[in-house]
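Justification of resources, computational component.

The compute hours requested in this renewal are based largely on the per-chain cost of generating structure records like the one below. Each record pairs the submitted sequence with a full structure-token output. That output is archived, and it is also reused by downstream analysis tasks.
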Amino acid sequence: MKHHASDAHTLAAAHALGALEPGERQDFDAHLRTCEACRQEATEFEATAARLAAAVAQPPPPAAKAQVMAAITGVRQLPPRIPATTAATAPGGMLRRRAVPLALAAGVAAAALGGIAVWQAQHRADLRQQTQRAQQAQRQLDAVSAVLAAPDARTVHGRAANGALTTVVSSDLQNKAVFTATNLPAPAAGKTYQLWLDHDGTMRPAGFIDGDGTVVLAGSPADAGAVGLTLEPAGGSPRPTTAPLLLMTLPA
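The structure output for this chain reads:
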């Protein structure tokens, strides 16, 4: 990714995603040492990227460990292996000695397979849900990353009436805009935060944000002049029903 030197203040997002070329990264690291605003912005983007990436991770279910540990406690330790040279002098005894560990191994395998089958039956639906959530989170991360790393990405910051700090990054090449909020208070019961794109005074729904985090705005920001944030009934509204908590001009 190539950027002009005068664009240093716009590289925080690309820096957080590791999208800068070595020379650009070196120059931007030097810029960070003298620019408090860019340091803060880079930190926020790195935290956002980490939160999105963490959503894709899938830790192993606790039940899997319990099944393995239960099988281990019911199996005797295998006897030491007999050197192959003794097989010729005591073939019958060797066969019997081999039969014992083989039987134990078969028992362990059967117990493990049985435990896995039970675990799979119990958790198949959960795994499907986890997979769907992981895929959704990955798609969201990819969409956010594409905007933040776009060579024409532009950034603007704002503060909502409830004290939340907001950032909007938009890209004409991607025809998308990303909205980030921090310190966003939890909405009252039955309420939700809804985002809007202002098209010449007409507010069009652009998605929701549940709390601190980052979302890609729904709809095209190409002809929009501002991004709005309101508190709406759960499920959202076709048009704003409350005064905007934020109406922030999109970066030109």
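The helical segments are 12-16, 22-32, 36-54, 62-73, 91-148. Confidence is low (pLDDT under 50) at residues 1-6, 86-100.
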